[in-house]
Amino acid sequence: MKMTSSRRPFSPKLTDRRHGPTVARALRFCMALFVAALAHVIPVLDANAQASAIVLGISTPLTGSESAVGSDYLAGAKLAFDATNRAGGVFGRTISLRVMDDAGKADTTAINTKKLIDEGVFALFGSYGGNNTLAAMPAINEAKIPLIGVFTG
């Protein structure tokens, strides 16, 4: 007797041999929390997010030794944000991403964070690693914008 499942298979980009679908579930859960947190912040927006799209920025390792982590996190975020946009966005606004590669280097993260803030992102998310996050914090604090979804091992 052949067993069938109604569950969709997981994307290979969101699984690994050691943890399998657990990684995908964790990423989806984190992104759902992020979207929920964003929904609570939207009603008190300033001029940065009054346009039609909510622009979010992420500086994450897409190259270098930590690229697998950054790529998987970004893939999970894109899945969640695409689903949110297809469902009508957050209070009618779509989510748009600005992505920068920091190669897992704290000094590059600080530079990228400043660039993203200068481009007018509403919030930053997905900061990877304690040192990278600490390097970005002076610019984030000065700009007084949210940083959501910090992750580190």
How would you describe what is shown here?
The chain is an alpha/beta fold and 153 residues long. It has helices spanning 21-41, 67-86, 106-118, 130-143; strands at residues 53-60, 94-101, 123-125, 147-148. A four-stranded parallel sheet has the order 2-1-3-4, with helices on both faces. Strand 1 (53-60), helix 2 (67-86) and strand 2 (94-101) form a beta-alpha-beta unit. The longest helix has 21 residues, at 21-41. It is globular. 33% of the residues are buried.
Secondary-structure class: alpha/beta
Largest sheet: 4 strands, parallel
Order of SSEs: HEHEHEHE
What is the number of E strands? 4
- Helix amount: 40-55%
- Which residues form runs of ≥5 with pLDDT under 50? 1-16
Distance between the termini: 43 Å
Q: What average pLDDT do the residues reach?
A: 79
Q: Roughly how many Å is the radius of gyration?
A: 16 Å
Which features would summarize this protein structure in a list?
4 strands; 153 residues; globular; 4 helices; disordered N terminus; four-stranded parallel sheet; alpha/beta
Summarize this, please?
By secondary structure, the chain is α/β, with parallel strands linked by helices. It has 4 helices and 4 strands; from the N terminus they run αβαβαβαβ.
Topology:
Layout: H1 21-41, E1 53-60, H2 67-86, E2 94-101, H3 106-118, E3 123-125, H4 130-143, E4 147-148
Parallel strand pairs: 1-2, 1-3, 3-4
